[in-house]
């Protein structure tokens, strides 16, 4: 997979050089290109923003630098191909595990994290005439910019790429992963020592009875979901129903 990121703070994306994503890059599983949006400004102040038409607070990111930046990203990528443009924005569709899975299947992603009050709408509209566009939000809270959302999305996507996670089975029990654990939060996990500060590990996990362990883990996941995400329980119930229905 190729990933391009255009930002006025490319240094904010340095974490993509370390850990899981960094290792995937070193193994050639991921090809990441970071770009400074100001490369496509032409004034002495390297201006990327201006006041909003119609008034209102803050500044809006100018269309010209973004347009030229996207032209350069497309020209710099595989000949005859275009990326899927991923626009992190609080007004986007929720970035979910399902969307991460969908994007992990694309060969080339280009991220355009905004600052200020956002990017002039014409940039997205013009881009949509020549490449797929996905506007996505990592959550309902205020950020200073989209760079941190890019870090979240790239990590969630990269770990789904073949060979990136050492244990191919690791995805299976992820919270929100498709399949039996879909819409369920992960339950508690334990490791050695068997006793720590007077606290022991649940006996079932030491029993070696894999059927009982699996059942216990699902019960714990359901209890945790009920406690922390009751909104998911209904989805899970209907999902379980559908699965049972489908199995019939
Ligand atoms: O919630 B979000 O996913 C998100 C994404 C991008 C920006 C830019 C400024 N605030 C943001 C929030």
How are the SSEs ordered, and which strands pair?
Blueprint: E1 2-7, H1 19-26, E2 31-36, E3 49-50, E4 60-61, H2 63-76, E5 84-94, H3 97-104, E6 108-111, H4 121-127, E7 133-137, H5 147-158, E8 195-196, E9 199-200, H6 210-228, H7 230-247
Parallel strand pairs: 1-2, 1-6, 5-6, 5-7
Antiparallel strand pairs: 3-4, 8-9
Helix pairs in contact: 2-4, 3-5, 6-7
Bound molecules: 1~{H}-indol-6-ylboronic acid.
Can you describe this structure?
The chain is an alpha/beta fold and 248 residues long. 35% of the residues lie in helices and 16% in strands. The protein is built from 7 helices and 9 strands; from the N terminus they run βαβββαβαβαβαββαα. The protein has helices spanning 19-26, 63-76, 97-104, 121-127, 147-158, 210-228, 230-247, and strands at residues 2-7, 31-36, 49-50, 60-61, 84-94, 108-111, 133-137, 195-196, 199-200. It has a 5-stranded parallel beta sheet. A hairpin with a 2-residue loop joins strand 8 (195-196) and strand 9 (199-200). Helix 2 (63-76) runs parallel beside helix 4 (121-127), helix 3 packs across helix 5 (147-158) and helix 6 crosses helix 7 (230-247). The longest helix is centred in the C-terminal third of the chain and has 19 residues, at 210-228. The two termini are 39 Å apart. 24% of the residues are buried. The model has no long low-confidence stretch (mean pLDDT 92). The structure holds 1~{H}-indol-6-ylboronic acid. 1~{H}-indol-6-ylboronic acid binds at residues 88-90, 114, 137-139, 143, 145-146, 149.
